[in-house]
Fold this sequence. Notes:
The protein is of the alpha+beta class. The protein is built from 3 helices and 6 strands; from the N terminus they run βββαββααβ. The protein has helices spanning 19-36, 69-77, 79-91; strands at residues 2-10, 13-14, 17-18, 42-49, 60-66, 92-101. The strands form 2 sheets. Strands 4-5-1-6 form a 4-stranded antiparallel sheet. 14% of the residues are buried.
Amino acid sequence: MLRHIVMWKFADFAEGRTRDENLDLVASMLKSLYESGKIEGLRSMEIGKDTGGTDMSYDMALITEFDSEQCLANYRVHPDHAAISRYVKKVRTARATVDYEF
């Protein structure tokens, strides 16, 4: 199994939406992708918005679990995920990620 964690900092305003509106929109997009069942080998998805609000905080975290590295690779290029990724690139100011086997 492989765990894939991504964290983003969002712009205060981007693509005609506030930070909070974009946080909600991206969370909804990701949740819909997971619930669609279109990503083979995607076992779980957890999405969380920051409640700490410190200078070190990121605004949102995504934790996903995959059967294998190949399943994660397939997720990265899946057209539905790619569309979400393109949008997030327009509204984020920073991104951090880590992948590890467990």
